[in-house]
Known about the structure:
The structure holds two protein chains of two kinds. Chain A is 74% helix and 0% strand. Chain A contains eleven helices and no strands. In chain A, helix 4 runs antiparallel to helix 10. Chain A is globular and about 65 Å long. Chain B is built from ten helices and 14 strands. In chain B, 31% of the residues lie in helices and 29% in strands. The two termini of chain B are 38 Å apart. The longest helix of chain B has 16 residues. Chain B is elongated. In chain B, 38% of the residues are buried.
Amino acid sequence: MNANLLLGRLRTDLRGTLIYSASVAFFMLVVLSSYTAVAGSSAMLNVFNQLPPAFTALMGGDIARILKIQGYVGVGYVHPIMIAILAAFVIGIAVRAIAGEIDRGTINLLLARPVRRRDLVLTAFVQLLIGLGIISLALVIGIWVGLQTLGKLASGVEPSAVLSATLLTLLFFLAIGAYSLLFSAASSDAGRATLFGAGLTLIFYFLNYLAQLSPDFKSLGSLSIFHFWDPGAALIANRFQWNELALFAALSILLTLAAVIVIERRDITS
Amino acid sequence: MTTPAIQVESLTKFYGKHRGVLNLNFQIEPGEVFGFLGPNGAGKTTTLRLLLDFLRPTRGRARILGLDSRADSLAIRQRIGSVPGELRLYENLTGERFLDYMAGFNARPPSLRDHLLDALQFDRAELRRVLRHYSRGMKQKLGIVQAMQHDPELLILDEPTEGLDPLVQQSFYTLLREFQARGRTIFMSSHILSEVERVCDRVAIVRAGELVELARVSELIHKKTRVMQVGFMHAVTPEQLNLDGVSVEHLDGQHATLAVKGKNIDALIKRLAELGVEDLTFEAASLEEAFLDYYRGAPAADTEGIE
């Protein structure tokens, strides 16, 4: 990792990171503020049960869960808007780190300096970790403020459960960032790298979505990394999902190493 | 024995089936200003990118400052400065932040920054502006400053005066001479022949990825056949003009057109003086003519971009 490169990138992306953080916190606040309308309401449960699977799948599939505050917080994590914000953040960092530098032509300045090619990847990986850490903190703050506005309704959400769900989410999006980094390392075109990163994320998302729609498609779910990401379950069970955490961590590390191999072997042509 | 600043051996790069450069061999001594000449697409930038380890050679190798361009690339890049062709900067940084950022990668401090900014007539107030508001010329000046500010042992420059106005170009040439005077080496690709003629000691000419000439600039100029028109006081015979390096193209009594090649000018002038000269026209020696000799008969695309 290159400290000067990291500091430069953190400084350049600071405003963006803060905007993403504020968006995540605000979104979670909005989600939780609507909980009073559903809390413990059997009428709402009936309404939700009438909804088609195509709709309930967007909320994680298990309707009974969202009547509990822990499950409702979980909906905030897996809501398509939240996914879009976090995916845009990690794909953006990963693409700008390598394909973006090549595409803009600034790689010609950067790699004429004593900067290892692998530093481009490893620095981006650390930047992803730091950025996701900041966003996770904002997410937790958003949840905490949201729960405060709910008063007694919020009881039952343990800090350790929030920590567990947030850590799972951080590692999940780190894995998305890592495969985007691999596409970025392989490409000289920022647009193409973005297309691949976002495209694969969408494919994974819809595979998981289809798996929830019908038992016929259930086997498709295990092909998607979304299948292994269930922050709602972590919140309800109030325990760390070690297997999933290990899976996302291993994926992140392996994909980052693959990106290192790719960048070390290729020609840099801009 | 001094270590060559750059030593290139059988350097070859293919992009699939397309030839980038083929079997390049040359050596640059410390303290030299070396010009790398060729039109667009001849392989100049490919060579520079191979030296900087952006591209991996298909065959051959290069040593820079005595180190292997691939295995010791990081150590090499601590000791060199580079201005890339078609320079692109970090547009959202201010000039000052950009220079600090670039300097932060090197162990050497940016000790020459102030001197370079002064020499290139760069208004310091402009350093506080964001780069996307800079003109082409200002960006190029900053590109030169970032490459030279840490006083590198070797400068690798790809079309370094692109976008600079003529006055700043002169200042830049002076800076190159200062660098050279301190024992620094400069490897410069250019398609501006007057620039190369002015600042370079030696040149290599590449055509379609192959090295076609490697010589001192003065030698290259003298290799060129130049035309001399002479008006004599009296009629002369071809035998009277029979000298080494001189051939009579046309003789019409008192008027002769001579093709002159090489450095035998002194003997020719003395012979002409003996014969009595009434009028004389001798085309100036220029690198441009010498260079174009290598491209005569080549497809038009081969000379594209030459000035």
